[in-house]
């Protein structure tokens, strides 16, 4: 019966073992580190451009201003995190914790895949008034799946591994 042409293929498909996947706590701490870095850079920019003064005066920023800040924030993210993402598929926070972004086969994704599929969709969706913050929460809560992949990982076909 070994030569059954109707038998399912017997090849073993390699998947990342649970011990290779980065832990949820590691990913959270890396995101916190990256967030602190971004806040330290973006807040002074927002103060310098008068954003908080307008809010304090009760002025609601025009949608064009909100879009401008979202674009500026993403560009600042690319300036700050671009080098480690391109070189090793790590943000500074991931680098500190020894974890990295990888494709499902464990190889390093291209910089374009990381930026255009993993980070840009989250930035765009997160910027949508009212529903954006809710969808951002859903994105990160998906980490509680057994494969520990958030929505941005599913979109980009990536995972976060140790090493």
By DSSP, the count of extended strands is 2
Biggest pleated sheet: 2 strands, antiparallel
The tally of domains stands at: 1
List the uncertain runs: none
Could you give the order of the helices and strands?
A: HHHHEHHHE
Please estimate the helix content: 55-70%
Question: What structural category characterises the helix and strand content?
Answer: mainly alpha
Any key phrases for this structure?
single chain, 163 residues, mainly alpha, Pra-immunoreactive, transmembrane, transmembrane helix
Provide a concise account of the structure shown.
Residues 22-157 form the RDD domain. With 163 residues, the protein is mainly alpha-helical.
Structural account:
This protein is mainly α and 163 residues long. The protein has one domain (24-162). The chain is 59% helix and 6% strand. It contains seven helices and two strands. Strands 1-2 form a two-stranded antiparallel ribbon. α1 crosses α3, α3 (63-88) packs antiparallel against α5 (111-126) and α5 (111-126) crosses α6 (131-141). The chain is elongated and about 80 Å long.
